[in-house]
Amino acid sequence: MEALAAGFWGFVGGAALLIGAVVGLYANVSRRIIAVVMAVGAGVLVASVAFELMEEAYDAGGFGAASAGLILGALAYFAADGLVSRRARDRKRSEGQQEDGSATAITIGALMDGIPESVAIGASLIGGGSVSAAMVAAVFLSNVPEGLSAAAGMRKAGHPASYVLGLWGAVAVASALAALFGYLFLAGAPSGVVATIQAFAAGAILTMLASTMMPEAYEEGGAVVGLVTTGGFLIAFVLSRLE
Among 58, 148, 159, 227, which residue has the fewest nearby CB atoms (within 10 Å)? Predict the structure, then answer.
């Protein structure tokens, strides 16, 4: 049952991309609103990294495993993002800049953002624990604006709605599988391995936030996103203490 729960909650997080894509295709949402939602998601993710992933990684494996995993995750995301950005530099933009970018690269970029988050959701169920509400909320809130802006941009770049929805639907399924894998693979693993994987996810998420999500939110929403991000952080902090 816990394995199914991991897959379900991973799908919930990934389905936010599909929900955002539907809104981006069929609703005229201002870029400022997208930026505000993105800022809330960024704040929630920062708190989840600090109070969920890294705290649990330290408890399970100590400074060594937590530090090594964090650095490896950051380096892996940095390298992968550099490769993907060469083919789809504006993969999250809403103004049609994806016209010259590869749809494959855009999909890989979405998976690169989402898989560490989904693995973290699956890992939170290890040992009979309940799913981390803060982590699911963080993934959901960060994925909605990503799916929204990228889908709107792909539509303006000439991709049909059926293609865009099919692509994000596939990413949602992949997110569910990643969460399921995170649970099944890590359930019987040594505590040091679990700690390293959790910290790896934290490093990848934190690097993504600093390099793409936060700059894009500020660019589109202005200085107010700083306050909104802090609000998102507070929400996740409260959720983490209530669990």
Answer: 227
Helix, strand and coil content of the chain, in percent to the nearest 5, comes to 85, 0, 15
The two structure tokens encoding residue 74: 């950051």
The first and second tokens of residue 107, run together, are: 């999909």
- Separation between Cα atoms, residue 176 and residue 70, nearest integer Å: 23
Report the interhelical angle of 161-187 vs 191-208 (nearest 10°). Answer: 150
Residue 220's alpha-carbon distances to 36, 38, 133, 188, 216, in angstroms, are 9, 10, 28, 44, 6
Say if pTM beats, i.e. exceeds, 0.85: no
Q: According to the model, what pLDDT value does residue 115 have?
A: 74
**Unique residue bearing structure tokens 């997080």:** 13
How far is the first Cα of the chain from the last one, in angstroms, to the nearest whole number?
20
Amino acid residing at 122: G
Structure letter (DSSP) for residue 131: P
pLDDT at 66 over 90: yes
